[in-house]
Amino acid sequence: MDLKDKVAVVTGAAQGLGRSFVEILLKNGAKVALIDVNKSVGDELKSTLDQEYGRDRTEFYTADVTSEEDFKGVWEKIVKAFGRIDILCNNAGIINEKHWEKTIAVNLGGVVRGTYLALEHMKKENGGNGGVIINISSMAGLGPLPMAPIYTATKHGVVGFSRAMAAVSKLANYGVRINILCPWFVKTSLLSNFNSEEHIEQTPPVKSVTESMMQTRGCLETDVVAKAFLVLVKDESKNGDALMIDPEGAVFITFPERAKDLRSTPVSLETDVVAKAFLVLVKDESKNGDALMIDPEGAVFITFPERAKDLRSTPVSLE
Ligand SMILES: NC(=O)C1=CN([C@@H]2O[C@H](COP(=O)(O)OP(=O)(O)OC[C@H]3O[C@@H](n4cnc5c(N)ncnc54)[C@H](O)[C@@H]3O)[C@@H](O)[C@H]2O)C=CC1
Ligand SMILES: CC/C=C\C[C@H](O)C(=O)/C=C/C=C/C=C\C=C\[C@@H](O)C/C=C\CCC(=O)O
Predict the structure, then answer these.
(1) Average pLDDT of the chain?
(2) Centroid of ligand 1 to alpha carbon of 94 (angstroms)
(3) pLDDT value for 178
(4) Which residues make Cβ contacts (< 8 Å) with residue 3, sequence separation at least 6?
(5) Among the listed residues 79, 81, 69, 63, the one whose alpha carbon sits nearest the alpha carbon of residue 13
(6) Which ligand approaches the C-alpha of residue 97 most closely?
(7) φ and ψ at 58, to 5 degrees?
(8) ipTM of this complex
(9) What residue ranges in the chain does DSSP mark as E strands?
């Protein structure tokens, strides 16, 4: 995809990764509508971008992605102002394990809302021009972070939802690609706020797992993650793909095509199988964090990769 004169929308655009996605889109010739709930920081960025790129390349809109009225309202303003939207980056996200309903509303609800708004505008059956949607997950969307189970759940949800919607778009010939970006820890205020504020109630051993991960392998800079984002925007062969990036580089994840393709261990059951399967999970005291899948062929314990890094993948160059 050539980005010259294309129109992009980025949520959570005022700082951190969202700001880096805005800047790499501008550097590649696109016009960008910035959406963020933080008006003061957003206005400040808009004036900075005006000086560097000119006033006609960007607009800033204050909106909360958890609000249908807000998000839909600014979406309609953006279409009116720019005439079209070709790219959407659902980037807005928070981490707060105590106020977990809000975390789910922003990290998953906001992605769902943005994806649906974009598909209604972009899909060819509605007279749209097609386009691409990049949903920002995390490596916590590929492997569980013990100190952030809610955050992990929302990021796993972004991966599952995006892969399912990419399949819908392909089957229905929407002409819209939907891809997922899964970064390691990145130096932004989300990460620093998380470390400094009491978002969660965790025992020391749980906290040390995450802290040791950052200490041993470091954190990414936003501009490196933005290069991975650009690969997902521009590569028109990618739909339903997840690009994972950590200090060792970027790799496309190879997911099993179907649940049946996951590695597994059979479990014997007789009649009344679903209740029997339930009882196995209740009674077997060796099981914790285990998933028992049951279908007409029987019941199997799924063998998940221990860590995101253990998933099959294909390296990609970001130069
Ligand atoms: N920083 C990290 O270590 C990683 C971050 N991510 C994800 O990347 C995305 C961006 O994160 P960061 O740049 O680190 O965070 P950040 O906190 O630096 O920036 C997030 C932006 O989203 C905005 N925002 C928050 N809630 C919103 C809402 N309801 N409506 C509209 N805007 C809202 C904030 O005002 C802020 O400007 C998030 O989805 C996060 O989960 C993924 C992996 C690693
Ligand atoms: C605690 C969350 C802090 C910040 C959230 C940040 O926004 C983010 O999304 C960071 C994600 C980083 C994830 C990094 C690696 C995840 C690996 C998973 O497979 C977890 C698996 C096990 C942890 C121990 C290990 O050896 O990897």
Answers:
(1) 94
(2) 5
(3) 98
(4) 25, 28, 29, 30, 87, 233, 234
(5) 63
(6) 2
(7) -140, 160
(8) 0.94
(9) 7-11, 31-36, 58-62, 87-90, 131-136, 176-183, 242-246, 249-253, 264-267, 292-295, 298-302, 313-316
